[in-house]
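STRUCTURE:
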């Protein structure tokens, strides 16, 4: 048998004598010092840690309703479990301007609830079928205007009562399907009453008039765009890659599409001018804006130019954004300052400084559309509003608002140069104008940006370098 190797002898280690620990918090005789606080044993005190509460996400089915998944009755159960949303679904069935009574979903008749349930199932089936072959009732797009609108009359759209009801049902059913089936990441749950109302209440889209139809624009005159069927609008957003994982990012992508495509209309808001631009005698239809229409000249009907994506200025663009984003449950409210319209993206806490911002000449530069948005603090400081203000205070507030209409575009233009901005620079350079006397500075000055602020950023030096790089002047 092999012999085991002998173990190596252990070397004796020299151990240094341990130092005696000095008693802590002790006085000269080794006794505790009463003037010094003694450290408590145990874990160190931790700073308070607050988890950031995540906003609700779509696709949540209450436990009480899960046995109904796949059935039409799931909608009724889900709405009963979410009363804030159910009470925001409001329709005005009574005829006449003097009877403005409305009915929320809990008080709808069984027939009305059945129709909403069927519209919801149609929306779900359409989406499950790859967003094709919609099986619900067909509606013309745009809906015909029942008001002939004489020459010179302003935009107005009067919709047949049955068609208005069908379009409203389709819109609400689509919103509820997007929520329950999780077509978008964010949720209706947790939205405020105002936001839910603008997404789901029929009176925010149509108002019953004494002629028996429904006038577009609703009680708050915010529908300045004739909505398309939500299947068309939603498919457009998805197929053009405009839906993102947050409402703010989605709004930014939609603004980028507007910047690349929309063109401000020409002339006033008359019925004839609407017909010339959108071939529709009434409020501009969303579908015609998306697909583009030629600007017709009645004096020369043979000349049909290439189509453009015409938009009816700041109020028309704000209405278009409202109509478009409703299909992905993003409410858009309209704010008015100094005679202009400013979209308020309530659930994102953001605004535009002007409805025209996305497609103005200086905005056609290389930056994400989300940068056009301003926060609430900036909006309040630029556009102060106090209903109880005195006449002098109101005048001062209006003057301040007037300076800041479209201001955000100019803030961005300081650092992001569009072709139009460089063209102004080249004109000033050719004319030998100084910084202060040039037309370019005049544009910034009119929006509250001073000469000193521009020069501090080396604005004109950077413009010269960019002009040289692009070979423009």
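SEQUENCE:
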């Amino acid at each position: 048998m092999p012999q085991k190797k002998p173990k190596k002898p252990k070397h004796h280690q020299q151990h240094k004598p341990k130092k005696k620990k000095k008693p802590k918090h002790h006085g000269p005789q080794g006794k505790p010092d009463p003037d010094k606080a003694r450290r408590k044993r145990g874990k160190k005190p931790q700073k308070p840690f607050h988890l950031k509460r995540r906003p609700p996400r779509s696709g949540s089915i209450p436990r009480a309703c899960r046995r109904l998944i796949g059935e039409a009755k799931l909608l009724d159960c889900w709405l009963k479990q979410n009363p804030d949303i159910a009470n925001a679904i409001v329709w005005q069935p009574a005829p006449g301007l003097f009877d403005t009574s409305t009915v929320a979903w809990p008080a709808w008749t069984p027939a009305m609830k059945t129709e909403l349930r069927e519209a919801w199932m149609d929306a779900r089936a359409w989406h499950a079928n790859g967003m094709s072959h919609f099986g619900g009732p067909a509606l013309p797009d745009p809906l015909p205007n029942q008001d002939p609108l004489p020459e010179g009359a302003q935009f107005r759209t009067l919709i047949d009562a049955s068609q208005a009801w069908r379009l409203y049902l389709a819109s609400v059913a689509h919103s509820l399907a997007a929520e329950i089936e999780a077509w978008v990441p964010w949720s209706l749950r947790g939205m405020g009453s105002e936001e839910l109302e603008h997404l789901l209440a029929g009176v925010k889209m149509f108002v019953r008039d004494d002629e028996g139809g429904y006038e577009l624009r609703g009680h708050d005159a915010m529908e300045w765009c004739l909505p398309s069927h939500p299947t068309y609008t939603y498919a457009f957003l998805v197929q053009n890659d405009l839906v993102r994982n947050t409402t703010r990012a989605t709004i930014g992508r939609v603004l980028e599409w507007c910047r690349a495509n929309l063109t401000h209309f020409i002339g006033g808001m008359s019925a004839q001018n609407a017909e010339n631009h959108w071939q529709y005698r009434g409020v501009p239809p969303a579908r015609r804006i998306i697909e583009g229409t030629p600007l017709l000249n009645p004096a020369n009907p043979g000349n049909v130019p290439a189509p453009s994506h015409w938009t009816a200025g700041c109020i028309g663009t704000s209405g278009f954004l409202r109509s478009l984003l409703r299909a992905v449950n993003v409410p858009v409210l309209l704010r008015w300052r100094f005679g202009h319209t400013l979209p308020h993206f309530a659930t994102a806490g953001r605004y535009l400084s002007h409805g025209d911002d996305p497609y103005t000449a200086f905005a056609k530069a290389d930056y994400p559309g989300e940068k056009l948005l301003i926060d609430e603090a900036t909006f309040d400081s630029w556009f102060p509003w106090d209903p109880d203000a005195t006449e002098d205070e109101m005048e001062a507030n209006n003057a301040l608002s007037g300076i800041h209409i479209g201001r955000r575009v100019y803030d961005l233009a300081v650092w992001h140069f569009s072709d139009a901005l460089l063209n102004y620079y080249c004109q000033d350079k050719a004319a030998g104008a100084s910084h202060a006397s040039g037309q370019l500075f005049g544009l910034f000055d009119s929006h509250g940006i001073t000469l000193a602020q521009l020069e501090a950023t080396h604005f004109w030096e950077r413009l010269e370098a960019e002009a040289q790089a692009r070979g423009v002047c």
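REMARK: The chain has two domains: 65-382, 429-473.
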